[in-house]
Amino acid sequence: MKGAVAMPAPTQPAPLAPGDPVPPFSLLDQDGNVVRPEDFLGSKLFVFFYPKANTGGCTAQAVSVQEALEKLDAMQVKVVGISPDSPTTQKRFAEKHGLRFPLLSDSDHLVAEAFGVWGEKQVRGKTVQGITRSAFLFDAAGRLVRAWSPVSPKDTVPKLLEAL
Predict the structure, then answer these.
(1) Total domains, the chain
(2) Which of 57, 66, 19, 41 is closest to 160 using CA atoms?
């Protein structure tokens, strides 16, 4: 088309690299508490992103993290899960599955964008905007040790334990 100007593709943040600090955030958990990365300084922090609470893969992933929680606590690893779901939905999800770690509401997906896990993806043959299931391990100083993006629900905990 004459006179048409090509628009640049939207940019996504560069993926986090080992040694990068945890991106800053301030999100509500399922109980209405504000959670920030600095709340976990002095402990390792495992952050996992999941697309939607109470779906098959997200439930399997969260339950596997819960089942490993005692072992993670012993290794001084704190855990948070993040999705675009509301705090109310996160609360129902936590109660239904006995999840005892913070589930954070990133309804405007700004934190997912900062971690580089929000963008176009294929779901049932359609292109949609959403979270790529991903996981990140930070050291006690808040620096990235390992990242898995994408990660399958069944591989999330084994990959974390292998990295520890």
Answers:
(1) 1
(2) 66
Cβ–Cβ under 8 Å, residues 113 and 12? yes
Alpha carbon distance 102, 30 (integer Å):
7
Give the span between the Cα atoms of 120 and 109, in whole angstroms: 13
Q: What is the CATH number of the domain that holds 129?
A: 3.40.30.10
Kindly state whether residue 3 falls inside one of the protein's structural domains.
no
pLDDT, position 14: 55
Q: What's the mean pLDDT in 97-112? A: 96
Tokens read off for 10:
């939207």
Residue 30 near residue 87, CB atoms below 8 Å = yes
Q: Does residue 144 have a pLDDT over 50?
A: yes
CA distance 12 to 116: 6
Residues noted as catalytic: 58
**Is the Cβ–Cβ distance between 121 and 132 less than 8 Å?**
yes
What is the residue whose two structure tokens read 């929680």? 69
- 14 assigned to some structural domain: no
DSSP, collapsed to helix, strand or coil, labels residue 25 as: coil
Residue 148 reports pLDDT greater than 60:
yes
Instruction: Please check whether residue 20 is in contact with residue 143, taking contact to mean a CB–CB distance below 8 angstroms.
Output: yes
Its pTM surpasses 0.85: yes
